[in-house]
TrEMBL record:
Bias-annotated ranges (Basic and acidic residues): 199-209, 348-362
Record-linked PANTHER family: MYB FAMILY TRANSCRIPTION FACTOR (PTHR31003), TRANSCRIPTION FACTOR HHO2 (PTHR31003:SF16)
UniProt KW keywords: DNA-binding, Nucleus, Transcription, Transcription regulation
Entry protein name: HTH myb-type domain-containing protein
Organism: Sphenostylis stenocarpa
Pfam family, one: HHO5_N
Family matches, as SUPFAM superfamilies: Homeodomain-like
Lineage: Eukaryota, Viridiplantae, Streptophyta, Embryophyta, Tracheophyta
Length: 383
DNA sequence: TCGGGAATAT
DNA sequence: GATATTCCCG
């Protein structure tokens, strides 16, 4: 609708003419008042506004009488012309909202609740949020986690052992679900209250595959963290990881799958390493001994960090820019390749970024994302 | 029962 | 093609 204003501006129409045009428009729309109540209303408002401007009066908008069909949902206080923008905004913002997956229902909630954060780089905020999870006391999360139980617990028998101070009840719940899934795009907090979404497991009733679990950054972080504590991807088992992660609703299978992927990623590069061609690969590997842990992380992982180096960090390095630093300019070929990879593995990389920071010596990175963007390895997936 | 890996689905 | 789920085997 905002095209009206535009139109007017462009054509420099006089208000009288414009009003006339609007009236005309309204007549046309009137026919579809059922289908386009809003449009009708908007036009009506626009007319009203024009009239007011024309007369210079400050009369209040009296929209009620304008359209018989409209239900008047918008605040009449707002000048029509201004309203156009917001409306449009709203409409457009809804689409690009989430990064990936399609949990429409959730998205909606998320959208609403996260409206504020959305503006700026959502990713950033997400990231930050996820970071927060690692604070000494992540109350919110724990709450959520606590609330719902994990089926897998039953499966695994030992319900979490040492790592799970609390007991789990029945049913993996949505809350949990939201925690582990939502993060996909920042919706953690928002969803805690999410209504009666059906849990994936429940959906299974359909006899179909369960809903895909989205490994949010948070989740992945947890995963990595667990991995660290368990001595790396090679030595950690899915069950252990799951317990370590202490995420309700997370199943062994899911962890296993993720672990599989993780290993895949971390190992894939190794061959390259052998090729001397890849300067980046080899070096960093051990570089890691020197760790600079980010504050948040340090608190938790410091002790195990060193250990992890060999196992976890090293592989990551392959992709990671870590190694690269030594050779800032490095070969183009390598760069390009990695870059592409990086893109794909962005998710991992993302979560790992912090990891890198901890493990990698400062040299590696200035944790600044920009550095990574730089060319080479920086692109590496965080694995 | 569990873990690893491959096949399969999304 | 990447990622997650499911199946199979030891």
């Amino acid at each position: 609708m905002y095209f009206f204003t535009e139109k007017m501006q462009r054509s420099k129409m006089g208000f009288p003419d414009y009003i006339q045009a609007l009236e005309e428009e309204r007549r046309k729309i009137q026919v579809f008042c059922k289908e386009l109540p809003l449009s009708l209303e908007l036009v009506a408002q626009a007319i009203e506004a024009c009239k007011q401007q024309l007369s210079g009066t400050t009369t209040e908008y009296n929209l009620n009488g304008q359209s018989e069909c409209s239900e008047r949902t918008t605040s009449s206080e707002v000048p029509v012309l201004e309203e156009f923008i917001p409306i449009k905004k709203r409409a457009s913002s809804s689409s690009p909202c989430c990064d990936e997956d399609d949990e429409d229902d959730e998205h909606h909630l998320q959208r609403v609740s996260n409206e504020n954060n959305k503006n700026s780089d959502k990713r950033k905020s997400d990231w930050l949020r996820s970071v927060q999870l690692w604070n000494p006391d992540p109350p919110a999360e724990e709450d959520v986690t606590r609330k719902v139980s994990g089926m897998e617990l039953k499966r695994s028998g030992s319900g979490g052992g040492a790592f799970q101070p609390f007991h789990k009840e029945e049913r993996p719940a949505k809350a949990t679900e939201s925690l582990s899934k939502a993060p996909c795009s920042t919706r953690v907090a928002a969803t805690s209250s999410s209504a009666g979404e059906v849990t994936p497991e429940k959906n299974l009733n359909d006899g179909q595959r369960k809903q895909r679990r989205c490994w949010s950054q948070d989740l992945h972080k947890r995963f990595l963290h667990a991995l660290q504590q368990l001595g790396g991807a090679d030595s950690a088992t899915p069950k252990q990881i799951r317990e370590q992660m202490n995420v309700d609703g997370l199943t062994n299978d899911e962890v296993k799958s993720h672990l599989q992927k993780y290993r895949l990623h971390t190992r894939r590069p190794s061959p390259l390493v052998h090729n001397s061609s890849n300067p980046q690969a080899a070096p960093f590997v051990l570089v890691g001994n020197i760790f600079v842990q980010s504050p948040e992380y340090a608190a938790v992982t410091t002790s195990t960090a060193s250990r992890e180096v060999s196992t976890v960090a090293a592989p990551a390095g392959i992709y990671a820019p870590v190694a690269t630093h030594p050779t800032p300019v490095s070969q183009p070929s390598a760069d390009s390749t990695k870059r592409s990879q990086f893109k794909k593995l962005k998710h991992f990389e993302h979560s790992n970024s912090d990891e890198r920071a901890h493990h990698s010596e400062g040299a590696l990175h200035s944790n600044s994302p920009t550095s990574s963007s730089s060319t080479h390895t920086s692109t590496s997936p965080g694995y």
